[in-house]
């Protein structure tokens, strides 16, 4: 693919992630066993040795968001007092929500709480498959998908938005380090930060797409059992890439905005039908989730009971490492579209309301899954162990009835969710890959976006059909380690800005 000569890519940032990803895919195909083993060894070393770091930083970033909201910085307008918003508030919220959750709440909304219900942590005196296990499962689910992970996104996104729009700086991750390290940085260090972040996100997107392809293909095969996996996965991948390519040509104000609004509409239709056609105790489950969330918040955040425990490594540390790996690139996109908004508006729309939406969603679907599992624990255990976590949501649909309706809407929502998230992420990838800049921040050249989209789609399809997606998924976790140190500096930077906004802005 030829890129426009007037908008050349940054070779030092663009090509290393591309080459590394292709190299990893080739190794995983040629030596799948060795590759998987070595990747898992590296991942486990990171999770074990930096577990406390991931947890404590996540906790401190959550506190920082609360402080910034009420600090003098809260009244500042991103881009200056005369800056005007480019997006309507509803469209802005839809874009933020749909580009950050991807397929996460769809896939894990039922699978994760069931795992906690079936296999609760060893450091809490909880009986498996009990009411106490249900309560803990909802609280842990809220902890992993609520205010803490969104704080991991919001802190760097806010700082980037303030630094980038205030003086119209270059689109670089290094902007977030200026308050902490000053303006003196080498081009090598700046390129290194951008390159590592690019690689972490590209690997993460390939893994996310792989999980999405598996779930969508599984759903198609449930509805059409005679369709082979290779055919269904190929069709799903081509549809995602095709839809993405069309959207990529439209920019933020058309493509991503329309996809996000459509996606949000599907979420609301799905949840409304679920509430109307089922008899679950939704409000009770949501309140129980919040109760357990706040009760265990400090314990889980600071690893008071779970330090050096396998459950903590497998869930809290693993999840926050992935969120952190995605955070730098996600921050670029969220910060870019926040122009014209005050800091308090930004935190409400990019942190509080998306987190609240996720918690309500998790309370409804996670709670319903657990209610059904309490009635038929053996059936859900067998499905989880034998068919995998991706089967749980379809089992829920079978148990409550209206399977074709719910499964059909679910498949469409998952499809649109990934396309939307991929569109926003490749928007940031393309912006960061460019040596110069686009004339309009909201219209990045589609050729670079399409290149990334095709590469990621091809990677995901090859991995799931020839070797398995775990290797690439693990690569995204590994990207969380440099992100841990980067976000530590970013958090210090935002703290400094919040105390002396006039000095830095």
How would you concisely characterize the structure shown here?
With 505 residues, the chain is an all-alpha fold. Helix content is 78%, strand content 0%. It is built from 21 helices and no strands.
How do the helices and strands line up, and which of them pair or pack?
Elements (H helix, E strand, L loop, with lengths): L10 H20 L1 H18 L1 H20 L18 H13 L2 H15 L12 H15 L1 H20 L11 H4 L5 H37 L5 H20 L3 H26 L4 H21 L7 H27 L6 H33 L1 H11 L4 H9 L2 H31 L12 H21 L3 H9 L1 H20 L1 H4 L1
Describe the structure.
The chain has a single domain (11-504), classed as Amino acid/polyamine transporter I (Up-down Bundle), CATH 1.20.1740. Helix 4 (89-101) packs across helix 14 and helix 6 (131-145) packs across helix 12 (282-302). By secondary structure, it is mainly α. It starts with 10 loop residues before the first helix and ends with a helix. The protein has 21 helices and no strands. It is 78% helix and 0% strand.
């Amino acid at each position: 693919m030829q890129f426009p000569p007037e908008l050349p890519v940054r070779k030092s940032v663009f090509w290393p992630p591309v080459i590394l990803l292709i190299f990893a895919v080739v190794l995983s195909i040629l030596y799948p066993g060795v590759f998987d083993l070595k990747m898992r060894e590296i991942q486990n070393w990171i999770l074990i040795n930096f577990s406390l770091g991931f947890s404590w930083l996540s906790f401190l970033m959550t506190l920082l968001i609360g402080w910034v909201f009420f600090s003098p910085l809260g009244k500042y307008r991103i881009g200056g007092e005369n800056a005007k918003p480019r997006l309507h508030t509803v469209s802005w919220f839809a874009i933020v929500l749909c580009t950050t959750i991807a397929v996460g709440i769809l896939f894990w909304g039922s699978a994760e709480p069931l795992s906690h219900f079936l296999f609760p942590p060893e450091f809490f005196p909880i009986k498996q498959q009990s009411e106490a296990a249900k309560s803990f499962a909802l609280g842990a689910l809220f902890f992993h998908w609520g205010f803490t992970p969104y704080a991991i996104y919001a802190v760097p996104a806010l700082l980037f938005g303030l630094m980038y729009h205030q003086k119209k700086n270059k689109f670089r991750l290094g902007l977030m380090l200026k308050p902490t390290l000053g303006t003196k940085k080498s081009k090598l260090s700046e390129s290194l930060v951008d390159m590592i972040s690019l690689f972490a996100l590209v690997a993460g997107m390939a893994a996310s797409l792989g999980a999405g392809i598996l779930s969508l293909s599984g759903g198609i095969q449930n509805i059409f059992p005679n369709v082979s996996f290779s055919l269904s996965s190929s069709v799903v991948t081509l549809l995602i890439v095709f839809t993405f390519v069309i959207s990529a040509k439209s920019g933020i104000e058309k493509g991503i905005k329309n996809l996000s609004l459509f996606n949000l509409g599907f979420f609301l239709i799905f949840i409304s039908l679920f509430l109307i056609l089922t008899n679950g105790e939704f409000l009770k489950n949501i309140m129980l989730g919040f109760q357990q969330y706040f009760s265990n918040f400090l314990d889980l955040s600071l690893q008071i009971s779970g330090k050096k425990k396998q459950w903590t490594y497998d869930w809290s540390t693993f999840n926050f490492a992935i969120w952190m790996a995605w955070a730098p690139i996600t921050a670029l996109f969220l910060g870019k579209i926040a122009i014209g908004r005050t800091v308090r508006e930004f935190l409400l729309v990019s942190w509080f309301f998306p987190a609240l939406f996720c918690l309500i969603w998790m309370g409804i679907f996670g709670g319903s899954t657990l209610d059904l599992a309490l009635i038929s624990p053996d059936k859900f255990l067998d499905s989880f162990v034998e068919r995998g976590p991706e089967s749980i949501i379809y089992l829920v649909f079978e148990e409550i009835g209206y399977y074709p309706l719910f499964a059909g809407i679910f498949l469409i929502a998952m499809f649109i969710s990934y396309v939307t998230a991929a569109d926003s992420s490749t928007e940031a990838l393309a912006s960061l890959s460019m040596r110069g800049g686009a004339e309009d921040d909201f219209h990045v050249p589609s050729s670079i976006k399409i290149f990334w989209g095709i590469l990621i789609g091809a990677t995901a399809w090859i991995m799931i059909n020839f070797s398995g997606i775990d290797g690439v998924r693990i690569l995204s976790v590994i990207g969380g380690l440099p992100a841990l140190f980067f976000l530590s500096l970013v958090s210090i930077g935002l703290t400094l800005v919040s105390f002396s906004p006039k000095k830095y802005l």
